[in-house]
Design brief:
heterotrimer, B: 298 residues, mainly alpha, MetI-like fold, 2 domains, two-stranded antiparallel sheet, 16 helices, 2 strands, C: 435 residues, alpha/beta, D-Maltodextrin-Binding Protein, domain 2, seven-stranded mixed β-sheet, 21 helices, 12 strands, 46% helix, 12% strand
């Protein structure tokens, strides 16, 4: 009996090893070598064809093969082995592609510029004492709070409200979802066009500055307009008294606005408000615009799973719409909110494109991911770049904890 | 039917929706309009003034689109994109669906810890793992003196981009699909098990078809990300124009080194939006119906 | 039997042909920052057309906005481009130190001839421990001020030859109700470089001229030395005197440097231009609106940066530099060609029609080949300076990146925003950041 169970254990261990490493490795290597060998040997159209067909289907062989092996294992061990088989390839690939680089990054964060000598915690001291780094961390916090709350609340409102419509639901949702189809670079270009600044007396092609310079009159009583020709006469905004355009993405506070121009230093409230980081918020809006569609779709699905009888019952009892939303709908979507918040937090911490193509971190708009790339490719400081990347990694710990609780809660259900 | 709805519910909801939709559409309007205006006209007059002044009609031109759509080798880049995008979408989804099923329905040792590992891996910044990953695909990996991956030299081939995108897309795909499958009725899966169906059969016959909406939704997300990306593609496929993907090609065409070439930027952005929009609208019924088990629970 | 013999002969002759010209069809990849299809990228590609026709070596230029990070990845991936073109020579030296570059000597370059053709000063910018890695390529001219002669003449203004004359002219223009200077230094991720250029031009003409300039760049005098402070005060005079710059002091940091001169081409309701003078490098016409570009050399031209405390012929410039990452025969051929006198022919004669304003760094290059008279004039200027060793390369490009593309830029931006009272803090901060 014990001999048999030992050999079973050995078998199970063997199958586990096969599931977690041998098979995925075999798949990885064979696909890699296959395509490496054919890439320059077969005609291009055939390569594209094979890439699409073989590249997409090869993976199924992996699971079919593993299933075969497990069927030889003793019945009562199969449950655990299936777990290993189903999860194995994912864990293997994550370990190879993400965990391995992460470990290397931790190691590098304690090394000097080129990774040659150990410098202890120097890079970490720098990360928290450097002025630019402090501002970068502040911006990251603003983005985290702003994007997560705005995206979740707007997404939730649209999902809930559009759910009650009989017609037009698809149209509204499509409009909100559309920005998902555009790359970060494309979206940033669209907003750069809105925020654009050109020096006077040029025509303001950006919408915000166009609004700003239009209207009112100059000191002589002539109207201020955005370089419009009326009856062959040009009406511009350059005379004294007209509002001048501003570089929106260069405004790190509000001191250029008339309301805040002459704030007395002892007016604590006003001077606190005048520190509002306008440009950071304007950039953050781009991300909100891009990601609300995602949140809306996920919430809308969760809301649809709320049994209609319950909400109807609430309405018959005369409960207000807000009350129904809070006490009936919310419990259903609570877990979904955690999912969306997790995803958003991760996306914000990784956010790179928007800042890279608009300001690239100038005027106190930097974010951690951009700063990391700057340290890496501009200043060639691999140690500091790694440290910034560790900061990004550590920032997500609270979200992981949140998910642990959610996990426990669900398992106990 | 909605006898209990208050009289103001509908107008108020419509008002909220219309306001938000207009705000969301606004950025497009000027952008799309400008893509049809002459280069000098864009700089001479603001787009809203050109509408109110009526010049928009005389300025109308396809010239900007001609410059992009008839660029040399654009179709080659287009095919490259498909060779990159399709496997890079299917591979991670397949692997993630299997893993998600196991996390949702199979009891095995170390499940919780492995799941947390998956979540933790979501945050590894793409930019940081690019270099180690590139070096892995070129020189292999050595762990404690043991070569776990041999020298492969696969950078510059499609397969390296698939692996890279698989790595970057996998954690989120697993996370979302697991959440989706948790929403499936457990009783259905349990009863299949009692009937003696193996996990593989249950996965193919039950779990996968029931979660098709979730799979389709994530497929769309992954498709859009891979299609819109060109950093990963440029890094792994190399900079040889033979391997260029469409978004990278369009970006090259629209970047003037001399400031903002708005007429090309706008037209280029519209061109690169075409494929994502086709994908979006053909799969949108899955979204509009809902992501999380709408068909089962609702 | 006969057929197969003929076939064999055919194959043999084909092999012979292939051996005779073994570089036919070899590909050489050339990677740089200007985008492939941008005017600069097209001009670079056009310079190899003739070469490809003659040798059969296919040179492909590729550009990318993410040039630096993509190049690092390509090096790590083991398939770097054969040749890369860096916007700053400092990076070439850093890459050479990291062991990623191949010394020019190993590529069969005659170093003595190379130094003679491109001046020891320029070659020295790409050297590490006396070993040249970088290939000098194109240079531009920075010590110039753009203006419109017709606007000057009609108002009786004359070209200022000294700083004081320039200030007097500026005051005159302000008194006449107009704005003297165009000044815009916004540049995605590099905001502030225009102010560092001004600083360098002033440094070359104040203190001990080129001597103190070299000391400053090499950090032999501290960044907050009185000589540097004096230069910053001069610059602040331009940036912070009321009415001197378009849109006021606030506009300096908001205006994209490429848009900065546009007000000069615009006329207000009274027919006055938005500004009269713009100190910017020789490449700026590429950023002008199309109709303004047509007036290059006639409607809009340039005068030399005015003399200051130390009168001299010093000229400030900058330029890019290439280096080789993969050594093979075809690349050696390309390198030979790029260092030859006629490499610049296609760019100079504007074959691609993109109106390139690049200037060859080759001292022997025949300047009469340049398509535009303005470029020709600038090239003559540069050639004389190079030969007389009074050409100085953009100092910030030669400082460590932490300063040259870090604190120097950001503190100059801060100075523009905060005003003259910030000069001391700006210089102290830069000094502190020097590694």
């Amino acid at each position: 009996m014990s001999v048999k169970s030992d050999s079973n254990k050995l078998l199970v261990f063997g199958v586990r090893v096969v599931a977690f490493s041998f098979f995925p490795l075999l798949w990885f290597l064979s696909q890699a070598i296959l395509f490496r060998e054919i890439t320059n040997k077969i005609p291009r159209p055939l390569l594209i064809f094979l890439a699409i067909v073989v590249g997409s289907t090869f993976i199924f062989l992996l699971y079919a093969g593993m299933n075969r092996i497990i069927s030889y294992a003793p019945k009562n061990y199969q449950e655990g082995l299936y777990g290993a088989m189903f999860v194995g390839p994912a864990i293997f690939l994550l370990g190879l592609f993400l965990f391995y680089p992460a470990i290397r990054t931790i190691y590098l964060s304690f090394r000097d510029k080129w990774g040659e000598n150990s410098v202890g915690f120097d890079n970490y001291t720098w990360a928290f004492s450097d002025k630019i780094m402090q501002i970068t961390i502040r911006n990251q916090i603003i983005w985290l709070i702003g994007v997560v709350t705005l995206v979740i609340s707007i997404g939730l409102i649209v999902a809930y409200v559009s759910d009650k419509l009989k017609k037009g639901e698809a149209i509204f949702k499509s409009i909100i979802f559309l920005p998902m189809a555009i790359s970060g670079v494309g979206s940033s270009a669209i907003f750069k066009f809105i925020y654009a600044y050109r020096p006077p007396p040029l025509t303001q092609i950006g919408f915000l500055n166009g609004l700003r310079v239009t209207g009112g009159t100059d000191n002589l009583g002539n109207p201020c307009k955005n370089n419009i020709f009326e009856n062959g006469k040009k009406i511009d905004y350059v005379n004294d008294g007209c509002t001048q355009p501003i570089g929106w993405l260069q405004q790190r506070d509000l001191t250029k606005f008339s309301t805040f121009e002459n704030v007395r230093p002892d007016d604590t409230l006003m001077s606190w408000f005048s520190n509002f980081p306008l440009n950071t918020v304007l950039l953050m809006i781009i991300m909100v615009w891009m990601f609300t569609g995602f949140a809306m779709i996920v919430f809308s699905a969760a809301i649809k799973s709320v049994p209609a009888e319950i909400t109807e019952a609430g309405r018959i009892d005369g409960a207000s719409e807000a009350r129904i939303f809070l006490s009936v709908v919310m419990p259903y979507v609570k877990s979904t909110i955690v999912v969306v918040a997790t995803y958003l937090t991760v996306s914000v911490l990784k956010a790179y494109d928007i800042v890279f193509v608009t300001t690239r971190g100038d005027f106190e708009t930097n974010l951690l991911a951009v700063k990391m790339m700057d340290e890496f490719s501009k200043f060639l400081h691999f140690g500091r770049a790694s440290t910034v990347s560790i900061l990004i990694f550590v920032s997500v710990v609270p979200i992981i904890v949140l998910n642990v609780f959610r996990n426990k809660e669900e398992n106990s259900l | 039917m909605n006898y209990s709805q208050k009289w103001y519910d509908k107008p108020v909801s419509k008002l909220i929706l219309i306001t938000i939709s207009l705000a969301w559409m606004f950025p497009y309007i000027g952008f799309v309009l400008s893509s049809f205006r002459e280069p000098e006209a864009i700089k001479r007059a603001a787009w809203w003034n050109s509408i109110s002044g009526g010049e928009i009609i005389s300025e109308f031109t396809f010239q900007n689109y001609n410059e992009i759509l008839f660029a040399e080798n654009l179709s080659r880049s287009f095919f490259n994109s498909f060779a990159v995008v399709i496997p890079s979408t299917i591979i991670p989804i397949t692997i993630a669906a299997f893993a998600a099923y196991a996390f949702a329905f199979i009891d095995f040792k170390g499940k919780d810890i492995l799941f947390l590992f998956v979540i933790a891996m979501m945050i590894v910044p793409l930019q940081m793992s690019l270099i180690p990953l590139v070096s892995l695909m070129n020189k292999g990996a050595i762990l404690f003196g043991l070569p776990i991956i041999p020298e492969l030299k696969i950078t510059g081939t499609f397969v390296s981009v698939w692996f890279a995108h698989t790595g970057f897309g996998l954690p989120l795909a697993t996370f979302l699909l697991r959440d989706f499958m948790m929403g499936l009725p457990r009783s259905v899966i349990e009863s299949a098990k009692i009937d003696g169906a193996s996990h593989l059969t249950t996965f193919y016959r039950l779990a996968l078809p029931l979660s098709i909406a979730g799979v389709a939704a994530f497929a769309t997300f992954q498709f859009l990300w891979v299609y819109n990306d060109f950093l990963v593609a440029n890094v792994f496929l190399g900079i040889n124009p033979r391997n260029q993907v469409i978004t990278s090609h369009v970006a090259q065409l629209t970047v003037g080194n001399y400031g903002e070439e708005w007429h090309l930027r706008t037209a280029g952005a519209v061109v690169s939006m075409i494929v994502p929009l086709i994908v979006f609208f053909s799969l949108q019924r899955f979204f509009i119906r809902g992501l999380v088990g709408g068909a089962v629970k609702g | 039997m006969r057929k197969s013999l003929i076939g064999l002969l055919l194959i043999l002759s084909m092999v012979a042909v292939a051996c005779g010209n073994s570089l036919e069809g070899e590909e050489v990849l050339y990677f740089g920052a200007p985008a492939t299809d941008s005017p600069d990228g097209i001009a670079i590609q056009s310079s190899f057309e003739q070469f490809t026709e003659e040798t059969g070596i296919i040179v492909t230029y590729v550009g990318s906005e993410n040039f630096e990070s993509e190049l690092l990845a390509q090096i790590e991936a083991g398939n770097p481009p054969n040749i890369a073109l860096w916007p700053q020579p400092g990076t070439v030296r850093a890459q050479a130190r990291a062991g990623n570059l191949i010394p020019l000597e190993d590529l069969g370059v005659d170093l003595d001839e190379y130094r003679a053709n491109f001046s020891p000063y320029l070659v020295g910018l790409g050297e590490v421990d006396g070993v040249p890695y970088g290939g000098a390529h194109a240079v531009n001219l920075k010590s110039i001020v753009w203006y419109q002669p017709a606007e000057f003449d009609s108002r009786g203004y004359s070209i200022p030859e000294t700083w004081d004359e320039m200030i007097a002219l500026a005051d005159q223009i302000v008194a006449d109700g107009m704005t003297p200077f165009c000044f815009g230094m916004y540049s995605n991720g590099a905001t502030g470089w225009l102010a560092t250029d001004w600083m360098e031009d002033i440094m070359l003409r104040t203190g001990n001229g080129t001597t103190s300039y070299d000391q400053w760049v090499n950090h032999e005098i501290p960044f907050n030395d009185p000589i540097v402070k004096n230069a910053a005060t001069y610059l602040s005079q331009i940036m912070h005197t009321d009415g001197y710059v378009v849109g006021g002091t606030d506009a300096i940091v908001s205006t994209f440097f490429g848009d900065a001169q546009d007000p000069m081409f615009e006329r207000d309701a009274n027919g006055n231009p938005g500004c009269f003078m713009h100190r910017q490098a020789s490449f700026i016409p590429g950023f002008w609106p199309e109709d303004a570009q047509e007036g290059l050399g006639t409607e809009t031209t340039f005068f030399a940066f005015p003399d200051m405390e130390v009168p001299s012929d010093t000229v400030l410039g900058a330029g890019d530099m290439w280096a080789v990452l993969v050594n093979d025969e075809a690349t050696q051929e390309v390198v030979d060609f790029m260092l030859s006198e006629n490499y610049f022919d296609a760019i100079a004669t504007n074959v691609a029609g993109t109106g390139s304003t690049r200037i060859s760094a080759h001292i022997g290059f025949d300047t009469s080949k340049y398509w535009s008279a303005t470029t020709q004039k600038q090239a003559d200027f540069l050639k004389a300076a190079l030969a007389a060793n009074v050409f100085r390369f953009d100092g910030s490009d030669n400082m460590p990146p932490e300063v040259g593309s870090g604190s120097f830029w950001s503190e100059m931006t801060e100075l523009a925003v905060q005003g003259p009272s910030y000069i001391d803090s700006a210089l102290d901060n830069i000094e502190k950041s020097w590694p």
